[in-house]
Amino acid sequence: MRSFSMNRQHLTLCIAALITLIGIVGCGGNAMLKIVNNGTSDYTIVLSGSASPTEEHAAEELQTFIEQSSGAKLPIVGEDNDLAKSGKRIFVGSGDMADSLIPEGKEADLKSFGDEGYAIHTAGDDVIIVGGKLRGTMYGVYGFLEEMGFRWYTKEITKLPGKTLSVSALDIVDAPKFMYRVPGITEAYNPDWAARNRIHSGGTPEDLARGGKMDIMGSHTFDKLMPPELFNEHPEYFPLIGGKRVTGYVQRCLSNPELVKVAAENMIKWMDDEPGYKFFSLGQNDVEKLCECPECHAILDEQEAPSGIFVHFANQVAEIVEKAYPDNHMIIFAYTFSEKPPKSIRPHDRVIIRMAPIRLCFGHPFTECTSVHAQKYREHLDGWAKLTDKIFVWHYCTDFPNYFMPFPDFNEFTKDTVNYYERGVKGIYFQGTYTTEASADGELRAWLMAQLLWDPYQDSDALINEWMQAVYGAAWEPLRASFDLVQTLTEPADKHIFIYTPCTKDLWPDHIVASMDSLHTLATELAKGDPIASKAVKKNRLTVEYLKRVLNTGKLEVVDGKYQPVGCTVAPEEIDEFIEMIGEFGAEALREEGMDGSFYKQFRQRTMVHELASIENDDLRIDTVPALGGRIVQILDKKTGRNYCHTGNTYYNYYPVYGGYDEITAWGWDCSGYSNENTTKIEGRKLTLSAKNPEGLVFTKVISLPAKGRKISFNSSIKNEADESQTYRLISRMPFEVAAKDSRLEAKMKNGTFAEPTPTEDLDFFWPYDLQELRFDGANKPAGAWKLIAEKDGWSVVSTFDAKVVESCVWHTCKALDMVRFDLHTADKEVKPGSKIQFNHSYEFFVD
User: Fold this and answer.
1) Which of 116, 270, 316, 460 has a Cα-to-Cα distance from 503 of 20 to 30 A?
2) 10: pLDDT confidence band, cut at 50, 70 and 90?
3) What domains can you pick out in the chain, each with its CATH number?
4) DSSP of 416-476, one letter per residue?
């Protein structure tokens, strides 16, 4: 561990304080208690006979840190020990002796601590630390150590004040402002560090020494509590969508009274299995797909928001569960489509609302942000606060596609912590780089969040300075300058940043990166000779090294019969070098992983030359890249020279295995099919691509062309070659390079004509680009065909498919990136070993 000596400024301040102190003492006061004087101490640590495991641990922590700093090892004794009956004592925890010494008028403190509050009082030479037995006394001990100058900046760097330890007379009563406090950052998960900084990230239920584990069990839990396997016997438990009951990754028929009993029974079993926890998620699946039955619709219509049906359901489950577990809570999400509060239904007393503002801009406090999402969020949060005083927040604090990209949100989350507290929020989970060690600012971020979750009114700027001075030593000022430079990127009111903001030169101009690079070079020089600071500076520099590489990988294009990087100034070896750099600090991921591939591999693939597998006829040439998920990257019109296929760019999370035509297993990010290397077989104008994923699913697409014409035919399938049944769907996605604003959609109606279709759902997205998804299913599903008409460019394409196999169609547009995408979804299906999902479809292009 590290101890820090005082600099000249600190010394001047201390001299001034000493002069003041001499004046106080000279007037007859007894303002200072010298716990240790130059390595020696007269103090004894006293525990009551009823000390809890955390109080025993707290006494040991107090003894350990005092000894580490000063060399003096204070004895720990019980109240019946002779050392406890006289002399100088530090009482840890409530007991007969400790309670009798609490100053007059402060006795009520003992009844108001709860699990985590505490008081520190001095009486003569004695120190009394009392608090809640679960964690309060332990937090009081850490508070007392902080009064003497101790800090726990990282799990490796602790501030030890020195051989002399003193405190002034103390009269402190303290408790956390938030009852649930979790920086969801790997660096915050260390149980000792978490306990010392008074947050809930670390520990286990069995870890009684640190107060067990305060956590929320589960997240999206409908599949756990109401398993998809129930569909075979009870399809009525599942949503009615498009006139039929459907399974897969969907919501449930939440108006069904029998389903309430099933969910409650499984929730009680879950609580039986996890006796160390008090919070359990009754969390909706991460997809809209609501039930359309009359009973569900009646609740939705009455409450004027989808959240109404979730509260209605949770309240009924809570009525049953409360009888078995009256002290436990269930958590439901107010998230995306369920963020808007219901009109009137109030959550049960055992139900906590967990808001997850995934669409927010995180560059500005939500009370100040000009984005439409911030305005809606303010309204929704205030609306929920009128219905319940039990609100938690799942707040985002990283760029999920780019863990090592600096995320300029410090001005936002430091202020929003206050905003949440003032709006009655009781708990915050900050979701950051939770899947890997070594995100470059993870330790600073976690420490600062820990301080603000205890008391959000602290001076965050001063806290940042304190941490940097302690960790970076002589190198702190250039790194503070680099930090400030990053934060200025979101100072303009219209400069919004989201959790999927791409790492581009628009956000990170060359001059900004160059300035950061220079400041880190200076910091490296200043840290020489200080191994702890040098390591911390090297870790922080990873952000700059990442930016220098990711911003200069260029874009892959078909050139000279290969798919190769254009405009790339980064060699594959430089990617290898970066992976080695972050490996030194234990990094396991560059982003939030969600599919078969790893960005370690995909990052390198951006800089590589890839072989093509191609077929052609007189009118079209189809180029695929077997190594990149077998995706189509070029549909070249030989007559016009146009490539109809949009191949994406580095702004995509999973580029280069995102963009181009692909086939996948699920609706969203946590799916398969993007990145597996394909085998190929070419037979004239027919190309077969095939790959097997780690779960035993075999993807096969057979692409064929006629001798003439612009029609591409597909036979697509996903076969289950695993030993057990798996539930999945088959989705084909064809993106077109076309200006969305100049395009229109028509669908084949039941009478055989084409007309503008009516969407079943219009999804509002939160990316920095203008994205929109229109879903068409049920009565609104095209009758086997739909077409894109690019009027300005003089071409159109008709997508034809088997309407009996395709459950839904999605029209995806991105105006800022000139992309329109056709998605075809089969229904989710339980596929037995040896069986498969398969369908035929085609795309035919017409040129004016």
Assistant:
1) 460
2) very low
3) 8-175 (3.30.379.10), 215-277+285-325 (no CATH), 613-847 (2.70.98.10)
4) HHHHHHHTT--EEEEE-STT-S--TTHHHHHHHHHHHHH-TTS-HHHHHHHHHHHHHGGGH
